[in-house]
Amino acid sequence: xxxxxxxxxxxxxxxxxxxxxNQPGTVNILEARGxxxxxxETPALRGASLAVRQGEIVxxxxxxxxxxxxxxxxxxxxxxxxxxxxxxxxxxxxxxxDDKRSALRRDRFGFVFQSGQLVPELTxxxxxxxxxxxSGTRRGPAIxxxxxxxxxxxxxxxxxxxxxxxxxxxxxxxxxxxxxxAEPAVLFADExxxxxxxxxxxxxxxxxxxxxxxxxxxxxxVTHDAQVAAYADREVIVRDGRVSTLTGTMP
Length: 251
Ligand SMILES: Nc1ncnc2c1ncn2[C@@H]1O[C@H](COP(=O)(O)OP(=O)(O)O)[C@@H](O)[C@H]1O
Ligand SMILES: [Mg+2]
Description:
globular; disordered N terminus; 6-stranded mixed beta sheet; Rossmann fold; 4-stranded antiparallel beta sheet; binds magnesium ion
């Protein structure tokens, strides 16, 4: 990466710290530098670099198989790249061991994937509460926090449904609530509307962008859909495992 790194974001990243504004900041909360990652003989990333500013929504676009999900997984500490560096708020997370990366994902990151992946045995509110339960919040307060999301996302009355009793759009809004309930610093969304019709997809994107802008949450949004990318502050394109900037200005 040829731009200077802005250095640790420091106190601005502290949990619960007030956001200065609901505008993207000037600090890079997340940065990939020259990532390479292969699966066997298949190169997925070949020198991918991306800087994400605190509070911005970045759409990562590109054709199927170009490396978008692999880039997201490296940024989120799910995968470790073979080359390059991943920085989150002044910490180089690709050097962390499995346990430290898991803890970081659990405590600071939220996730929404293409098809909600709700736990079918649990009620909707238990699914939403799951990230809080996993980080040690007691059941009562976790369920209370989860319930708040049902009115925010237009899900009132669905708290006790199981995933088999929900429409695709409802299930995806519940997955969104689960991704946001622990107030993550970064929400990683991989084709979050990919399995929805366009009306449900627009509703999910309206709710997602509304919720994150209210909270100053940073979003890495992988999509191959230009209508979904239009919700972002900035778009980048991944081609053959490398990132190119399409619109907007880099920090
Ligand atoms: N777990 C995996 N095992 C083998 N090959 C993979 C795996 N994940 C991704 N790939 C390959 O890496 C390349 C990039 O994949 P991916 O990051 O999923 O692309 P995208 O999300 O843009 O569709 C593709 O050629 C894909 O087949
Ligand atoms: Mg993908």
